[in-house]
User: Fold this.
Amino acid sequence: MKIVNEKISLEEVKKMAEAGFGEMVKAVVNIEKRKMALGGEWHSDAEEILLKDGSLQSDLWGINLYPFRSQEQIIEFSSLINIRPKIGNRTMIVEIPEVRAKIIEIIGEMII
Assistant:
């Protein structure tokens, strides 16, 4: 697993995917600190290293990255850590439009 604070190349993300699930790498994005953790078998693994690094759980959202797909299809907004009924996110999918927009923006800026 790796915490990404700066830009990361698409090629490096592809290598991480190939080393793990093949075509996908799990990621947890901190939408406030604008950083993410990549890798791990579970989103909770990446969530844990970000929490230890000072992130707040309320700022963390799990996604799957498919670096071999087109840019429009690279992000899948699904993770067990996204279930937050108290704030209106009742499923594994990131349903809150503002959160989705922040994730798309952060991924677009960080993966080059």
Q: What stands out?
A: Residues 2-110 form one domain. The two ends are 19 Å apart (CA to CA).
